[in-house]
Amino acid sequence: MIRQHGFALMELVVAAMLAMLLAVWGASALMNRITDARAESAAVWMLSVRQALHAYIDRYADDLRHADGPASLSHKGYADWAAPTLAQLKADQLLSPGFPELAYFGGASLRLWRHGACPGADCRVDALVHGNQPVRGKAGGIDEQTIAQWTLSSKGYGGAVSQAQPQYIRGPAFAFNNPSWDGEPLLPGIVAMAVTSEQSSQREFLRVGDTRNPDFKGGATIEGDVHAMDDLHVGRYLRLQSEHAMFAPCAQEGDVARNPDSGLLVCRDGRWHSAVRGSGGFSMNQLYGCFDSLGASTANPVTSACSCPVGASMVQISDSGPLAFPHGRTVGFLCIG
Questions:
Q1: What's the pLDDT at 243?
Q2: Fewer C-beta neighbours within 10 Å, C or N terminus of the chain?
Q3: Apex 279 CA angle, 273 and 284, nearest 5
């Protein structure tokens, strides 16, 4: 009897079918992975735009609250404060100069709108960055799988306009009417990321040029100089720690210091002078000079010596006459001028 060797025809057919199924499955998995990678890349791109939008709101928060027309930020390079462009954000250094302006969904647009008591300090600003085109599959329909992957990669900030409820833009952290601004609604399948007024209010710190009163309730320690461009109101006391001698050199005209004997000093003409206008006076004793018999100084508080300031005239106003030791004769003078 002759024994057969090799594969039967049926076995070859089964093997070919299995190989084909594996190839189809592998190609499908590869395409899905490519689509997922593209969705993840697009989410990272829009997260960068959202971060720039958040920085825009933080930088111009006071201007946005009080804006009374589209051109309120034209001096900063924005034609319409409610619709900044990527090019304008790049020019304002809120996006890097080489940041690409196109993405998987045809680039992005930014929209801002306000609610509450606007314009004014209590005005609230919401913002949205959204794709310019719906996310569609090869057949032309909305690609729900890609949108789902994009949402997973958006760190909770993403959302989309769904086919079931196109009147809303929804995400895990926000839900807005579509549209919430003056203009056309977004089409189903468009993805978006939001910067809500609640998210912005979490970063309500003082900014350069801020016009709001910080209304601090505690003390504030500042190592550098404090420059007040208007009046400075002190509710209780002003304590000066800087001490200088009368007529010692000073650096900055108008500086104020103190002297334990002469009181408040003002820097004038490069020297410390008494803040009290007047030339003062003094008395001299024939035995003790600028001191009395008990050792107390009788010097002029303006000059800290038995003399008159430069330009003042010395006028004798008293003379005790000859007195026996230990008192001695004392002559008083008033400085005029």
A1: 86
A2: N
A3: 110
